[in-house]
């Protein structure tokens, strides 16, 4: 059996029928589907070891704690962090960025200081920094884009100053698929003694991540973008930063001792994990990582590159289509508009033919404003997608043209 067909067998939802058509799921940048091993891991946890972690001496609690911390270890190894202590479990990338924007900035950001982001960021890597700047009287500076909607690194050096306290940038654009040159960006920041946060939400499913080789200070991940459950993610942070940063939230688990006069905080990473964690989701994320690690990464990379090329070739034959974001280095995400047809209309009609795409601004309003559009239709591919999915999308778009323009 073809390798990709074998992978597809692992994902039960791909057998779904939509209005009499086979599902062509092309909304992977929003969330990926889950293999059976992840679904089974969730079921197994609740059926066999459901208990709160770190707080019990009984059999279930000890087993749950061991499995939970093993998941942390798997995340550490997946991104090659130096220690499990550098992995803080969060609800996802959004909470991870908010944690840093709150805790780091509380300790290190002062009135008159500056934070650098880029015009291509997801709202989750914009708004937390805006809030931090408002709280502390700091200034948000924005790295512009080139005419091809890529980061204009020629302008980066002049944004740095002695007041710059953080640079935050996405590894991969969720709207355009562009893989940003973060190694070069981090190097420039290092030369200016500026810490760097990388929004890695879109990278986990497509790009090999080595935080030590990158030498970033912070890196964020979302499980559901890489075939794991929703509601769980992680913040990687260098140990030296976590030890200096104050807690993000207060409550159980993040303390060692509490009196009415004094609080002694727990060791890292637990200092940043207040309350009952999402134990089942963490363990199931570990199962997703195991699943990914067992795959042939070279075959997957070749398949995704070939699928992107095929999709661009086939979609370019659709009369009236315009592509946005055609960087040489990108993951299989295609943003487009079709003639004068609103993206929401495109998405609604292709759904009638079993095709799931995303439409709108993709939480990238500043980017869309720069391009001069309100949004796009976005087809985002994963390792289990096929050329047949692309063909189904093209056929559905022909129906869109027929509905609005009376032609194919």
The biggest sheet, with number of strands, parallel, antiparallel or mixed sense and barrel status, is: 7 strands, mixed
Q: What is the name of the CATH class of the largest domain?
A: Alpha Beta
Fraction of residues in β-strands: 15-25%
**Residue ranges: pLDDT <50 for 5 or more in a row?**
none
Tally of individual domains: 2
Task: Tell me the CATH superfamily of the largest domain.
Answer: Type I PLP-dependent aspartate aminotransferase-like (Major domain)
Could you tell me the radius of gyration in angstroms? Answer: 22 Å
Global mean pLDDT: 96
Helix content: 25-40%
Task: Count helical runs.
Answer: 13
**The CATH topology of the largest domain:** Aspartate Aminotransferase, domain 2
Order of strands across the biggest sheet? 4-10-9-8-7-5-6
Tell me the series of helices and strands, N- to C-terminal.
HEEEHHEHEHEEHEHEEHEEHHEEHEEHEH
